[in-house]
Amino acid sequence: MFKRDHIHNNNNIDTPQEELDMSPKIKKQKLVPMTCVDEKNDDKLHVHLILLDFSNSSLNVPIHKEILLLKQKFSLQQEGKKKWLLKRELKYQKFFPVEFMNDPEFVLNHIKKFGYGLEFASTQLKQDREFVLKVVQHKGSEIEFAICDETFLSDKEVILAAVKDEPLVVEYVSEELLDDHEFVLQLVKQNGQVLQYLDDMVHQEDIILEAVKQKEQALEYASKDFLKDTKFMSTVFRFIFPELETFDYSNKECMIQVVQKFGYLLEFASDELKNDREVVQHAVTNYGSSIQFASDTLLHDRQLAFLAINEYYGAFKYLSEEFKNDKEIVLQVVKQPRNTTILQHASQELRNDKDVVLEAVTHYGNDLEYASKELQDDRQVVFAAIKQNGKSLAYAFYMLQRDRTMVLAAVQQNKNALKFASRMLAKDKDFVMSLIQYGCFMTALEHHGLGFVGIGYSCSDKEIMLKAVKNDGSALSFASEELHEDPELVFEALQCNGFVLEYSDELYRERMKYCYDDAYLGPRN
């Protein structure tokens, strides 16, 4: 072991005085004796470290300059390391800068905090089984971005870990594994929702039961043959509703209890119960879309209609034609936050009602597709739509698709909206340059250099590409092949925000040197 004992140079240390008296103007800093024990011989070895400060010395100008440069470099590196640590905590949405692409700790932490990131990691990390296993344990869907040549998709440990977090992963699993009955049982025991993505041919009684035991909601995805089977359903309900001694789809008392938890089972109720307002009310309160299974009489019940759409806006499409032309009901449903169209199911009359359409596109821009032709040419309506979703520009009247103000507003909301702009604007180089200033140009390149203009139009234009990568380095990924390797573009992209097409140690070192003043981060594994 080393033992450090800092003392001044006037302490009693067996050191020749001439070694210390180098110059009267040189400040003698510290003499540090260190004791090292030889474990084999139990001998003590003494090491003396003498630190001298030449900063006040006028006798050796070159040394003085070197010391100042060294101090300056050290100071810059400290600032560089601080900058690196701060950038390490940021959220990255489109790519990881090269300094973090091959850093397993950073990539894993980013995935833990933000739910994504393997897509932006280096190829080396994407191919690392142990690293991928750690990733999918936290975010199963990230397996999509692993580079595995089918290896991971046949790896039971990796798949089971991923499925626990994300049942959709089962869609990537090899057919060989899905033919393994015991493995499928393991899958549903990990996550019952897997049943949703399994082919009906795989549905067997024991698999469904295990899925429902793990997740009661998985019952919704069982094949209808099983759901109609009262004997099987009695087995299922034995552990969900222990108080139910028997189960019968024509038993009102049973069905009231069941539809309060599984409203969609109204589909299998007797015709008498489908016409029972109390039963139907409980069903639609739990599962709005079950209104479709109500009797014709109850489909015209206004109160039930409101209950259904309030539980789930999508239930609107199952309402009677009478209610699809009811402005109050339609306004109620289009105001709800949603990710699918409602206007498509409204009457033609209400699709031409500006109040209804304006409200609809404000909450879901793509409802513009189902507005009347007249309202698709209404600037107020179209602007409200593209403000919610820039891509709804696709459904605007063609004259508005060539309107600069409208197009800029659309691409600022969603950069992919640019592909729906008029070809006339795409051919206007000044307009393209203005897009770069708005930070909206990169996605244009994604579509083969303003894809609606023609392949290579902007991708191979170095002037445009240079301006683009200076604004956002990731624009380099949409350059033509010959420009991918252009040293000037590669450097500008690296300098801008650390974007590289593929990780390399050389580009890593260049980035650390340029952006972080060659900060020393310790040994790299």
Automatic annotation (TrEMBL):
<feature type="domain" description="DUF4116">
    <location>
        <begin position="461"/>
        <end position="507"/>
    </location>
</feature>
<feature type="domain" description="DUF4116">
    <location>
        <begin position="155"/>
        <end position="200"/>
    </location>
</feature>
<feature type="domain" description="DUF4116">
    <location>
        <begin position="403"/>
        <end position="438"/>
    </location>
</feature>
<feature type="domain" description="DUF4116">
    <location>
        <begin position="301"/>
        <end position="351"/>
    </location>
</feature>
<dbReference type="Pfam" id="PF13475">
    <property type="entry name" value="DUF4116"/>
</dbReference>
<feature type="region of interest" description="Disordered">
    <location>
        <begin position="1"/>
        <end position="20"/>
    </location>
</feature>
<protein>
    <recommendedName>
        <fullName>DUF4116 domain-containing protein</fullName>
    </recommendedName>
</protein>
<feature type="domain" description="DUF4116">
    <location>
        <begin position="353"/>
        <end position="401"/>
    </location>
</feature>
<dbReference type="InterPro" id="IPR025197">
    <property type="entry name" value="DUF4116"/>
</dbReference>
<feature type="domain" description="DUF4116">
    <location>
        <begin position="103"/>
        <end position="146"/>
    </location>
</feature>
<feature type="domain" description="DUF4116">
    <location>
        <begin position="251"/>
        <end position="298"/>
    </location>
</feature>
